[in-house]
Write a sequence for this structure.
């Protein structure tokens, strides 16, 4: 997933994360909310913002291959994730698996979400390590929207370095 797409899907700081998805229909909304609730913890509450992001639907205009649980379709400029209602996985499992891919999570667990959605995994590899620190330091002292602005105050400074330090576990 591109860094721009991930940034469009996630709004996160060290203390909270919001996932931007547009589930269509009561069943999709319920499944997405349940999946996100499984990631949320007191340390990193994860919430759903339905105002933007990819559209999630049950079914699609074209028939599904029976072995496919979900597919991504682009219609104009809109990304759609279509779930196969008769797919090989129960819908709850298909939603978690597809959203894990979409969000770049190594697993659908609170620990994986904390690493990926906390903001300190700057290169999107599922780890908070020295390569992320290098990205932060490369932008240290810069202003504007840039990699390393963990507290989203439009500058990379000591506050961001402290947030990174609180999440980095050698």
């Amino acid at each position: 997933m591109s860094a721009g797409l991930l940034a469009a899907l996630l709004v996160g700081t060290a203390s909270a994360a919001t996932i931007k998805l547009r589930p269509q229909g009561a069943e999709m909304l319920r499944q997405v909310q349940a999946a996100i609730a499984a990631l949320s913890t007191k340390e990193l509450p994860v919430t759903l913002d339905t105002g933007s992001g990819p559209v999630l639907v049950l079914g699609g205009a074209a028939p599904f291959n029976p072995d496919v649980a979900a597919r991504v379709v682009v219609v104009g400029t809109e990304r759609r994730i279509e779930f196969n209602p008769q797919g090989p996985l129960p819908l709850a499992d298909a939603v978690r698996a597809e959203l894990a891919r979409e969000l770049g999570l190594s697993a659908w667990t609170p620990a994986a979400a904390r690493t990926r959605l906390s903001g300190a995994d700057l290169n999107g590899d599922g780890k908070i390590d020295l390569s992320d620190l290098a990205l932060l330091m490369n932008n240290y002292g810069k202003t504007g929207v840039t990699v390393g602005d963990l507290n989203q105050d439009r500058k990379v400074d000591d506050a961001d370095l402290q947030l990174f330090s609180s999440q980095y576990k050698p």
Notes: The CA atoms of residues 62 and 156 lie 46 Å apart.
